[in-house]
Amino acid sequence: MGLLDCRCLLLALLQLPALLRLDAAAAAAAFGWAPEPDQLFQIPEGWSCLGRVAASEALSLTFALRQQNVGRLEELVQRVSSPDSPEYGRFLSLAEVQALVAPSPQTLNAVRKWLEAHGIWDCTDVGTKDFLQCQVPAGTAEQLLPGAQFQRYVNGERSVVRSPFAYTLAEELAEHLDFVGGLHRFPAERKAVSRAWTAGKALLSTFHLGVTPAVIRQRYNLTDKDVGSSLQQQPADLAEFMGLFGKSFPHHLRVDQVVGHQGWGKAGLEASLDVEYIMSSGANISTWVFSNGGRHESQEPFLQWLLVLSNMSALPWVHTVSYGDDEDSLSRAYMERVNVEFMKAAARGMSILFASGDSGAGCRSVHGGKHTFRPSFPASSPYVTTVGGTSFQHPFLVSAEVTDSISGGGFSNVFPMPKYQTTAVKRFLSTTSKLPPSSYYNKTGRAYPDLAALSDNYWVVSNRIPMPWVSGTSASTPVVGGIIALINDRRLQRGQSPLGFLNPALYRLQEKGNSTALYDVTTGCHYSCLDETVQGQGFCAAPSWDPVTGWGTPNYPELLSALLG
Ligand SMILES: *[C@@H]1O[C@H](CO)[C@@H](O)[C@H](O)[C@H]1NC(C)=O
Ligand SMILES: *[C@@H]1O[C@H](CO)[C@@H](O)[C@H](O)[C@H]1NC(C)=O
Ligand SMILES: *[C@@H]1O[C@H](CO)[C@@H](O)[C@H](O)[C@H]1NC(C)=O
Ligand SMILES: *[C@@H]1O[C@H](CO)[C@@H](O)[C@H](O)[C@H]1NC(C)=O
Ligand SMILES: *[C@@H]1O[C@H](CO)[C@@H](O)[C@H](O)[C@H]1NC(C)=O
């Protein structure tokens, strides 16, 4: 029935992009050191190449400078995020994070001298001094980064400059730089899907016609009093959405602050979804939108957001992000560094939530026609909270939740399993009878998601038009973000710290075994490779934690009282 239609629609959207492994080994042999030899260059569907850019064309490049004391940062995050530590909640300011991780004077000097020797002066840094963003003419950039060759790619009105060839750096810089951003990675496509299928039958009045804020609030036990005290998204859409769907609870009609460029063109469906739902579960909580649309090329919007995190001392406590790429398409240097950026945010008390992805366990072809599952990053970072997706068991009733078969989940091939989850994950692996063959996943890796929420059949207002049947973990993530923001609000009112990085507290709470803070989702499987061995099936939900829906979905009053401590 309906579910099959969705599956076809989603599979149709998963067409393979053009792939090209950068020939970094050859480039390095010719010129020096390649920081990202494993970075895949892929032209996503919809983009085409217009050819090489003029030497005078200005590019924006981001230099990730080698940090100090990353090991100490990691230990500190552990202490400030673990409820049984005496330092729980004793977060650092941006200045304190800078004092810990800022690059050494030797690194700062070496990088600056190198740039200046190429006539590059137009650079800005961030509060923690570990990124430099510079405007560089393409011709100069090609001399600075031997091997790189800059070409323009367009997709509709969007346009970026990228190098399909690997860049190298002089050997002397190997100890000073992690990677250079703005060369290979394309802006990730945002994938909110409107599943257009119609409900055939006449509906009873107790039925709901799709997920609205009222449905979310009912399912997760938020009363009209559970509100806060204290993007490319068009303000008109949010007001209209709240006018249509937000009648019974106090809420803001506008986003309070936009960081970056606020374009006024067509709002993305996805941006509308994020803001409308974070502001309905996190009702009356001040909401900011980080926007990177607009101006010619924002080279790497995700990187830009990371830079903002390191450059503003006062930021929202909760961030929800729906960006994700296949782990195997990204360089290890890039992922390791982004992971450190999440540690820096955790040290400051921020809760960073990522959508787990909309491709189930994913699928990747490896040698000999074999397949493996395909983890997604940053969902697989051990320093973020990853949110999966569920559906109502009865599609039109506020009822128990089951797995949404698109819910991203699995095991990282890059990040080892963090301590906070080993008991839970090992229990899953040892008690589940029908696991996929072990060649499909890496049971030593960071397992995700951590929790879940409804991801199916949302109403969204976009460009002033209400759209039904919008689905994806980019819907469930802001819902959980809003709930965490409400809990932070209560904690702050009581003079407590914000929650910060959630996972240690979340796993500890759930491992007690008698927690009612989350509804355990125990039925349904997500999908994976359509081959003979697994036949489209990835992992299946099970009692307690599982790599499909994590610990389950929020029951607000119980989660609140557990996390108020
Ligand atoms: C960081 O913030 C300062 C002002 O506070 C600004 O001048 C600078 O351009 C910002 N850096 C980046 C990389 O955006
Ligand atoms: C939350 O809602 C469910 C039904 O949706 C109900 O069974 C439960 O008692 C409610 N309250 C709490 C505190 O769990
Ligand atoms: C909503 O937030 C505002 C501050 O932004 C506060 O003055 C107001 O009391 C809040 N409303 C409720 C119902 O708590
Ligand atoms: C499995 O994950 C670990 C990290 O937990 C990693 O070191 C190892 O290389 C991974 N194996 C494969 C085959 O990717
Ligand atoms: C759950 O169990 C712990 C001990 O493992 C106990 O301290 C706590 O009071 C119990 N909570 C509830 C709600 O029963």
CATH architecture of the largest domain: 3-Layer(aba) Sandwich
Number of strands: 29
* Shape verdict: globular
CATH topology of the largest domain: Rossmann fold
Instruction: Provide the list of bound ligands, each named once.
Output: 2-acetamido-2-deoxy-beta-D-glucopyranose
- Main sheet summary: 5 strands, mixed
Strand content: 15-25%
- Average pLDDT score: 82
Q: Mind telling me the CATH class of the largest domain?
A: Alpha Beta
Q: Name the assembly state.
A: single chain
Subcellular location: Lysosome
Catalytic activity: Release of an N-terminal tripeptide from a polypeptide, but also has endopeptidase activity
Pfam families: Peptidase_S8, Pro-kuma_activ
EC number: 3.4.14.9
Summarize the structure.
The chain has 565 residues and is of the alpha+beta class. The chain has 15 helices and 29 strands.
Mind sketching the topology for me?
Blueprint (H helix, E strand, L loop, with lengths): L1 H12 L4 E4 L2 H8 L8 E4 L4 E5 L5 E8 L4 H12 L12 H8 L3 H13 L5 E3 L5 E7 H7 L6 E5 L2 E5 L14 E5 L11 E2 L18 H7 L15 H11 L11 E5 L7 H13 L6 E5 L8 H9 L8 E4 L3 E2 L5 H16 L3 E5 L8 E2 L5 E2 L3 E2 L7 E8 L8 E3 L6 E7 L2 H13 L13 E4 L2 E4 L3 E5 L2 E7 L1 H21 L9 H9 L6 E2 L5 E3 L9 E4 L12 E2 L1 H9 L1
Parallel strand pairs: 11-12, 13-15, 15-19, 19-23
Antiparallel strand pairs: 1-2, 3-7, 4-6, 4-9, 5-6, 7-8, 10-25, 14-18, 16-17, 19-20, 21-22, 24-25, 26-29, 27-28
Helix pairs in contact: 3-11, 8-9, 9-13, 12-14, 13-15
This protein binds 2-acetamido-2-deoxy-beta-D-glucopyranose (5 copies).
